[in-house]
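Please predict the structure of the following assembly.
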Amino acid sequence: MASLTPIGLEILERAPGVLVVAASCDGEVLFANHAFEELPPAGDAEGSPSHDGGVPQPTKDVLVAACRRVASSGAAEAFDVGRLGPAGPLSWYQCCVTPLRLDGRAAAAVCRDVTAFKQEEARLRRSESLLIDAQGIAHLGTWEWNPSEPAVVWSAEVYRIFGVTPDEFTPSYEGYLQRLHPEDRERVGTVMTRAAAEHRSFSHDERILRPDGSIRYLHSWGHPVLDASGRLVRMIGVCQDITDRQLAQIALREALAEANATATANARLYAEAKKALGMRDDFLSIASHELRTPLTPLSLQLQLLRRRIREGLRATDKGAATQDLLKLIETSDRQLARLSRLVDDLLDVSRIRTGRLTLMPGDVDLSELVREILDNFGPELTRAGCSAERQIQPHVVGQWDRVRIEQMVVNLLTNAMKYGAGKPIRVTVSADSGAATFQVQDFGIGIAKEDQPRIFDCFERAASVRHFGGLGLGLYIARQIAEHHGGTIGVDSEPGAGATFRVTLPLRPGGRRG
Amino acid sequence: MVVEDDEAIRETLRVALEMEGYVVFCAEDGREALETLPRIPRPCLILLDLMMPVMNGWELAEALAADEALATIPVVVVTAFADRAAKVKKARGLLKKPVQLDVLLGTVRQHCGSP
């Protein structure tokens, strides 16, 4: 056996974490250091399961067998031996077995204890695996970019986010920009170059396009890494796929907007319904007043008549008393007629609103009709203090519903007398090129421009309710009659200067206008 | 005095009261009433309609209450609007249209005595 110098021996004995054994090709141990002597002679029955697939255990017989092999073959070997536990490596050695140049064949195995490194390596691997899992769970990827190089480093999750694999795509700054949504490209590019130039962090939203065309919403953070002299080494950062969250937000926003719109529409409908109800209530209250107005004198007159008849005619001047009573009866008649007309108006409105207004056209001489109406209204006109000027072109004949036309004329005339009392009324009838025109002009209170469209609507009145009675139906009915004949009605008026109502009717029924 | 814009009602009221023997003056709106009152013997009662053009019943009642000489004349409202009559200044009573003859005569007798 060759001899070892004392120094040589000391080194071999004292070197920390080193196993040394030398053996001949017969397996005779020529030298072994203390650490080797501490090894177990052979492996235990469980064997050494290893995720690398069978690393030999650090035992005496393994190493001696290795020496014998190498001593025989003359070829050096290098391998690991180790023991793994459930939590990682328990012990690990890197071994080199070298043939020795001595008389006879022998080899020496020198093993270095790398347990700590191996444990650290396992820990790191575990840590990295956790990190990769975490990135996958959070859809969070990490990247590194050195602005002076085109290449960029991506973690696995970033490839997944971008919908590509490392085989098909080599990440680079340009490549990344290309994958951005065209609308975001300029903004993001500017931010990133400025961050790199000014050594700033950034954080922004961006959209990318995957190869299949789908859009992903990302949030990216970037941070500069500087060296000791303040130069930029690289930018590092994180990008997270927040598409689900974004889409949910967008969906929520849209749902809110829709709910809002519905609420607004409902509020508007409610307001309209309330307004319609209010108008109906106003109408009912005005209507009841209007209906009671002719009923009052009628009722009083009948009561007076009954009283007189019961008492007998006690008056000294029987003639005068009889005249009074006869006048009373005449007044009663007029009130009845008035009441009748009101009820008819209400019925007409109900009919119009349910689409049941039917016309019965026949030959009507409008000139004759208007003249007749004006004559019949003589006493009323006088009572209202209105003188009637007529400009009636003779023989204006058309195919119309006589009753309805009469109703329309009477409504317009009544209005003129009510709102233009004490002033003259000008009535015109004319015809030209297939249409007849009927016009009533008064010189009364007039109608303001903003009220003019409304007055033809149902229950609308431009004059204040407290000053002028009336149902507000006359013009509505007049317009319905004109339009059902295929004609039009309009008004020209200035407040204080009276109003001119003009009706045009086609001579022949041409159907409804518009 | 009868203040009423509707001619038929005004005339009927006048005839009914004159048949009983009362002297009746008429006005067709508040303004005419205010113009007429100084020129006639002081009425024992004003029968007041509410819905009138030019100056309505509410406005006339305000004007009467503000005038020292006229404020003491009793005012009875004659109207179809029973609910709004409550807001007439210093009205002593209310006759609902259509008016009952005996109620009318009773009210007039109450304020004016027998004719």
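Chain A has 13 helices and 17 strands. The interface with chain B takes residues 285, 288-289, 292-301, 303-304, 307-308, 324, 327-328, 331, 334-335, 383, 466-469 of chain A (CB under 8 Å).
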